[in-house]
Amino acid sequence: MKLFKRKSIPREEQGIVNTTPEQTVRAFLNAFQLRDVEAALSVVDKSVRVEIFPLDVREGGFDDIRTALTDIVTAFPDLHLVIKDVIETGSVVTAELKVEGTQAADYAGAVNQEKHLDVDQAWRFTVDGDHIVGIHVYWCQNQLYRRLAVKRLDQIAIV
Amino acid sequence: MVAAFFEAYSRHDVETMTEMCTDNADFSYVPYEVWGKQRVLRGDGKVRTVGKVIWSGLINSFPDLFNVVHSIDANDKGDVVVMCDIGGTQQSPWGFAAPKGGRFSEPHLFIFHVDENGLIDKIKAYWNGAGINRQLGHLEVD
């Protein structure tokens, strides 16, 4: 006869959550849609590797993704993020987004002229457990500059 | 199939690339835009029309066009995501970029869908066109 019985502790209370990679990424994207940078970053590992090719961020880290999210949310306070597709391929999750908004502050060197932005982007995430450990971001900066009325790549800040 | 597609691309074998796709395969090179006075030409359509023309044009303008595949990730629904670099040395005009002998290499993301017959029925690609233009010495935002 057992004198003691081990109490079953739910996995959630043990800190173990069965979150799929897609769920982790959707948590990030949903927070991004709400323009809640800190909530988005809550599912990003502190050692995350970040590549944002249009912003020339190579081998970046946590601070780089924080800066990127903060900058776009600040420059486009009416940011409207449309999640077009989310593709889970093992631990890699790829999201296709349309980013829309009206400029209210300088962004990526482009002077604020209150132009409207609508740029298609692809974000490729690598997930480990319930955290994002890799982010690769793709969009065409030429498209973005064209929408923001930038005429030359070597004179971005000149109107 | 997707790995073989990039092998054919590296050989500049557009016919084989096309034959790996269904007759009605969708094609979307998202950053591709050519702005005119009254209309915008986009890289959207079908592989056998828009895709084939773009690939042939790229190879003509960049005779040493190459690709370096970094990762291929797939699921059992037929989705395939590829990270690669594509580059080459310009010998002929490409879009509004005049040939100056410049060389580019730029990260690309491709998203494919492969059907139940093992043929590609969707190709979508993203890259930073500004990065390419800077490398080619073309600084106008056309």
From TrEMBL, chain A:
Matching InterPro entries: Cyclase_SnoaL-like, NTF2-like_dom_sf
Domain of life: Bacteria
Name of the protein described by the UniProt record: SnoaL-like domain-containing protein
From TrEMBL, chain B:
Span of domain SnoaL-like: 2-120
Pfam families linked: SnoaL_2
UniProt name for this protein: SnoaL-like domain-containing protein
